[in-house]
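Hi support team,

I'm filing this because I wasn't sure whether my run with zinc ion finished correctly. The job status page said complete, but I'd like someone to confirm that the output block is well-formed before I use it downstream. Pasting the exact inputs I used:
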Amino acid sequence: MPDEKVLKPAAAVSVILMLIIVAVSFSMKESNKLAGVTGTAVFLMGEESEVAEEKAQEGVFAIFPGEKSKEVLAKLRDKTIVIQKPKSVSEVTTVAFEEIAIEQKIILHIEGIHTGELSEDSIYRVNGEEIYYGSAAAMEGDMVQFLTIAEEKKLDEEYARAHITITLDTNYAYELYEDDGYYYISLLRAKDRYDKIIVVDAGHGGNDPGTFPSSEQCYEKDVNLAIVKHLLEYLKQDDTIKVYTTRTEDVLPTLKQRAALANNLEADLFLSVHCNSNANTQIQGMEVLYNEKQDGTSTFTSKDFAQICLEHTNGKLSLKNRGLVPRSSNVYIVGAANMPVALVEVGFMSNPSDLAVLSNEYYQKKAAEGLYEAVQDAFERLEQREEEDE
Ligand SMILES: [Zn+2]
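And here is everything the job wrote out:
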């Protein structure tokens, strides 16, 4: 489930009628930037610059008008997306915020406006003293890489829904607020906002089933996801931990996306769940992969994390303990992760007795319980090490 935050309570009208797409995707204009630092700064201070004046005549700079500018400025963080409210915004308007972290994407769902009122030119990106607007062309300094606005309206409905989809240059934590004229999405460094961050990854997915036994229809991707979903339930019990996941459905993010999510967020821990396989069906047991190159540079290493995962998880399942496996270059996400990473190969799907455990929901939940304890333990040890360092 994506993180949804509603800015304003809803009074949505839902009539089942034919859905018509009124307007999808605006032209691929280039992004624009408000002159250089000087011009922008001058504009922000409410004074006139040549560029600002010219743009104001085009109606582009309705933002930060007059008296309001100081008040608005005081609210802006270093990086903020400012969306001018449509004229028809009223008490029936609802705004929901959705984050799709693995795609570095946020979506603003706005209900209860008239069609054609939103434009990329009224979606401003404030980055320090620079302001960008328009649909994106990945300009340097613009946090927005890609931007689309889709609008839809059912026949006979008075109001439309708009979906503003914004692809960002990296992953952020978000703060949302609004005033009479604008919606604000402040983009914060995740580590400044959250103390403890973990990225949980269910291996494979979509058209990559992972491994599967020849005997029956049971795919690794589904076992991984089932364990991860149980783990997410456990992690909900601890609100001191901010949890991100690479997938909660049967989809296939790339390995690069998975590692980038953890690295962009500067996550404290990266946990990947997989199942093993071997042509020799006698081979069985649990092993945990870690990044062997992460030693000496950190006081809590990938190996430490892997060891904790192995102890706790196999403590619940009592499979054969195959120990830790050092990897760096040949397993992408283990090698690419900048933080303590553990890739747990829970058991061998090619082995009948392991498979009986892996495909059983009771044991999937047990595995998740072990991983949850491992995560708790790991964060405790991370904290202890930090205290020792101080
Ligand atoms: Zn796998």
